[in-house]
Design brief:
The chain has 321 residues and is mainly beta. The chain is built from no helices and 33 strands. Strand 24 and strand 25 form a beta hairpin.
Length: 321
Amino acid sequence: MTSSSGSIIAERILSLPETIWQGDMECIPAIESVSFQSDALWVFGQHILFKSRDGVNWENLAANLRREGSFYVSSVIQGAADLRIFARTRNGLKCYRWDKWDSDWKALFSIPTSSPGLFSAWTHSGLVMVAKQNPVAEIICRESDAEDRPRWRSALPGSAVHLQIALSGIGLCALQEANITSSSYESHHSAIYSTSDSGQNWRLVATMETMLLAGASIDETAALVGGTGGVLGLVNKCGLLESWKEDGGDIVAVDAAGDGQIAIIESDDEPAAQSLLFRNGTGNWKRNTAAFDGRVQGIKLVAPGKCLVCTSQSIYRCQFE
């Protein structure tokens, strides 16, 4: 699938402490995701929430969430008016907005789900939320931040690993452990669904035998997904357009921006053997060897030949060609 292209230049720009105190609790911080929202990079997960304008200097914005003791931030999005985060604390899973006058997070509403966290997207129909790390992908839509009850609820079989819905309501949801049985009685571990009405109705568009682990939006209608066995796939509302298989482990993180697409493949060994895969447009994939301090949790393509890579304990600034 790939041609070898050498190694990447990786500079560690932030390391988390082994433990931190949240109120009267000693907690282990861990990065889970990286996102670009509201003209800034956000890194978040267990007991952490960082923001950066340049990818080098990072501001800790956990603020009053730390006083709740243990907290878990699962999603950061640009809302209709300003930024929203979704965090679970001892008081449940809630949506928050930043109060610039008090320099803290104000709770807007609670989300009625047992899921630890969720994916979220803002559309013309309102705020769409999909439960993650849940055996069933619950889907909840709220018309606004002020309404008391969800506009609608539905569910998809499987555990969501990627959600993208544009303002127009067109979107995709990728799920693992979907266990879809085809007409030939073959069982498929993962599935991709499409929506055109902001998640009220979904249509199965593709199944994959791999266990999907990650996904990233390419444009309004297409996504790059990756999973076990080194499988990558390009999907849209019509189905699986292309697929590739790379030796050496599982695809644990993917991203896309402009004409560029990148992925991290990682072995099951300890320490893990890691490589960065990348391509431009419809060109061939190239492979660069890499070495990070732990398991990769997320990747963000910030410019041609430049990306951020997050392990559970560190953020790296990387260059490749």
